[in-house]
Write a structure and sequence with these properties.
41% helix; globular; 17 strands
Amino acid sequence: MKPAAAGLYVHFPFCRRKCPYCHFFSLPAETAEIRSRVEAWRKGIAAEAALFSSGRSVAGSAVHETPLVFDTLYLGGGTPSLADPGDVARLKDDLAARLPLQLLEFTLEANPSGAEKGEGRDSNRFRGWIRAGVTRLSVGVQSFDDGVLRVLGRPASADGTVSFVRRARDAGFDSLSLDLMAGVPGETPRSWDRTLDAVRLLRPDHVSLYFLENVEGLPLEKVLREHPVDEDAAVDAFERAADALAETGLRRYEISSFALPGKECRHNFKYWRYEPFLGLGPSAASHIGAKRWANTAGFEEWRAGAAAGAVPSAEIVELDRESAAREALAAGLRLVEGIHLESFAGKFGFRPDERLRPAIESLERDGLIVLSSGVLRIPADRLLVSNAILSRLL
């Protein structure tokens, strides 16, 4: 049986400090303890990879009937750039010894904090990551305005981030992605212009552009209550950014993602095209076959479980074909390319344009969906209201 191409996500759970808007699992790690903590994490990842390879990763049950080969690796967090190049190289070797890797892309998330002082962010560090196999650097910028960075609790400065990105490029990274955030309290047209000017200057290969959201229960929630964001202004900022990115050659290929042709994130396509992916590490999520699950969001609990032969799960979901089809529709319609109906029917046994014809025809009349040449898609200028469209479709 021919192996299916899958994505591999590895969660690095440590940060210098927690950002007040971040809902991802992470733990603060002091400089003095980071080496020992990274070593313990890496051993846990190796143990979990071995469990998956033996079919015992999810409550003792096998999850992959079809053989898998992993062609993308994404090291996210947390702040994976706290890991030394040697740690990253050893991690990749550990994974290759336990899982079938045929990597076409290896992404590492990087935080530019401390760039002004060096703090190990020199060219040797970038080159070391490249020698370790990293092909793509994703930099958590959020803004190139110092006032906005202070609101977000980001320790980096705008000038330091520009320096960080330039040094990464000079060291040899030819695939650089920047994360930006619109709709932050205190953001103004002038501060947003500073961010867009810096992007034009740096000319990244990829930009992920998000709204500030999902801060319920986080420290920044109070800031948003006291300084609510004008949603229309946030949308206007997003659309101005999309126009600016288009001027630099970055085309929109997903709701929040823009890239030069050929520089799209292969790993993220796994999620949107509903292809299999495995997540390793505390809080990491996986979806393979009819099963979706997430590891426990506790470092010691996860590490002990990996060593004992059963990683604790925060969630395990068995998907029937109907549920999987609805998820695949919602994910695929995030993409500008949309959903190829014959391919969809090959996976799920029906064509959406036949099963959902009344809803599709209604949305077509309102200019909210396009059905043409066997492809179903949301027009690019309507992607920001995709949730409302999906609620009518599904």
